[in-house]
Design a protein that fits this description.
By secondary structure, this protein is α/β, with parallel strands linked by helices. The chain is built from eleven helices and eleven strands. The protein folds into two domains: 110 residues, Rossmann fold (3-Layer(aba) Sandwich), CATH 3.40.50.10950; 152 residues, Isopropylmalate Dehydrogenase (3-Layer(aba) Sandwich). Helix content is 41%, strand content 20%. Helix 3 links the parallel strand 2 and strand 3. The N terminus is likely disordered.
Length: 306
Amino acid sequence: MANHITTLPDFDTLYRAADDRRACVPVAAAGGAEPTVLQALRTACDRGWVAPIVVGREAEVRPSAEACGVSLDGFTLLDAEEPAEAAVAAVRAGRTRMLMKGQVATPALLRAILDPERGLRTGRMICQVVLMEIPRDRRRFLLADTGVTIKPTLQQKLDILQSAVEVAQRLGVPVSRVAALAASESVSAAMPETVHAAELQRRSATGELAGCVVQGPLSFDLAYAADAGDKKRLQGPVIGTADVMLFPDLASANLTVKAIMFTAECRFGGVLCGAGCPVVFMSRADSTATRLNSLALALRLAEQEV
């Protein structure tokens, strides 16, 4: 594997940064009657990271907390039949600077965020960016979009790319090496994602895309490992060194992330970008550790916002 070490921080670094913050950040958890959400919030609260606002039916939150042994000391309970809408309203009212997805369906949360009158629209696309850490190879990289747009157009990919590059910049990478992923390195009209990837590379080469160098189409192995480039006799500024991996569609993103999750020793966390505040956004099936990773990542992004 490549020996390249990116300047993206590992999660230990993000944890230390969160520990060193002078003041905790209010966070509204939509759908808080879920053990891993409550456990992550308890740990984050005890470490001084966040002041949790748990949104949902109080009659469900309290028994859930008791069943998993989580004290609600220091938590604010916001009783609500529609937790996604109530959590978004808390942001609009200035009660919190971050959202956290709990036991609510993704469409319900997105509807609340995208509501034209009561939501958190910014004019940007909503997309999920995941920070993936592979300790064995000392590799960290961002993956996008891993959770929202099923088949993004070229214009949507440009917006997703911008969000991922902005995340990288807030994490300390001024110029990201971006791999526009596809199943083949050859451009073919039969595979529209390769055409999109080549166009992104062209726009990067002409200086149209700020804060990044894009190469594509590239397969995952070429983006991840320099020796794959040696074997295929391919060169370029991104091969084996990608800071950002831009997926062609949601299916490939989901399959790749889940494959890494279940077959590699890894750490990861994810956020929604494009809304009016950072949104801690992972699957309802994710672990307490992953939710805590996502909180640490979101806190770093919230700290860097101007």
